[in-house]
Amino acid sequence: MNTESATTPFMTRSASLRACCAWLGSLRGKSMLALLVLVTYGLLVGVFTNMERKKLLDTVHELEAVHRSEEQLVQINMSMARTLLTVNIAFSAADPLSAAPPTVIEIEATRSLLTALEGRHARVLMLANKLEALVNDIVHQTTRGVLAVTRNTLHELITELDAITHQTREEKLRLLDAYQATYDRVTLQGMVFSAIAFIMLGAAITVFFKRLSDDILRLETRAREIVQGYRGAPLTVNRHDEVGRLIEAVNRMQHDLRERERHIERSRQEEFHREKMAAIGSLAAQLAHEINNPIAAISGVADAILDMRQEHACAHRGRHCQPEMILEQTRRISTITRQIADFAHPQPAVPQLQDVNQLVRNTCAFLSFDQRFRHLKLEPHLDSELPAVRIIADQLTQVLLNLLINAADALEDTSRSESRIEVSTRCEDDRVLLQVTDNGKGMDAETAARVFDEFFTTKPVGKGTGLGLSLSRELIREAGGILQIDSTPGFGTTATIELPVPHRDDNTMADKPDACAGH
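Now predict its structure.
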């Protein structure tokens, strides 16, 4: 089975789904979604209103049916009244037989009207059938007894019709009340639904535009802050529309500006370091040149005195004539000038295999002339079998200088009887470790957590910029290493640099032993 062809439709659907979600998250998508919600709400309200309208129509139809029944009852009651009057006249007549035809006609007319009620009222059907039998009796034999029974039957029908009429009127009143109640409910529901729609729409518009204006205000404020130099935490992106993408763009702009400033500051610091080292080297070369001539003369005179003392007995030997001391001090002056020149000698700006121990010795020797280190005990503990590492020597020197000066500054305000800075090197697990440890006042956890933050410093104004450790960590990272700071309040601070050791397959290490061999 071709898995690529099987996964392609799934990836296409996923991409389409992401594009759809992105479109719905945009301002245009939100407006269309709001319109869709509004239309859906209107349709639901219309369906509900139509259901209530159907109830009203059903009630109207029932009222029409009741109204027709009421009209039929009125006609039947009027016909019953005429029929009863005719029967009473026939019953009071001297000759009942002569009044029989009009009576039969009225009864038949009433009987025809009663057929509309027979299917709905059993009692009316029974009395109508009885009335029909009495009509046959009247036709064949008209007597007062038959007329009396007919009159009684008509009275029963009238009583039953009165009851039906009463029920019809009650049903009519009930339907009228139901119609009024339904009409009031529909009217109230329409007002409530309209009010809910306006409130929800107004609230949604208010919340949307308030949130939009707040985010735009945040963007405006942050843009001004970035122009004024703000490089802190980015804005929180809490929306996924065009404004959210604009916030992300401002955050990216802030990040890019920060990276650019960091690069510029790093370049400036490195250039300043190189210029400083070049100036020191030039000064050291000039001093060495100026000092070497009188030193050579002094050394020559001291050698001559030494030769003369060795060839001829000197009367002041051991008391005033000490050429050995003169020669020792001239050699010391030459060594100092050579150390300064070696330290400030220009280094290649590309990574090369470097002897970390020699870099540490040169840096410590150079700083020993700094007044901040005159009252400190600077103790190098260097591993004599330390392998070489690939790094830009000038950058490692710059980092080491920064760490040593920070350690010396941390020892300024301490009341210890012996202020000490220990610089040690060793090799562990194919990593060269360079540590600078002081017994100063240390740092609390909050300060230690921010030592690598840009522009964060605990030094007084004018003494520190807060960029040294941040730049140092970046330089060590570019060399493939790690810079860590561990500090205990009241006991001191340890800065550890870990640098990778080149592998044996590197052609520059072909003649060197295994990294950290024997460690």
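The first helix runs from residue 3 to 25.
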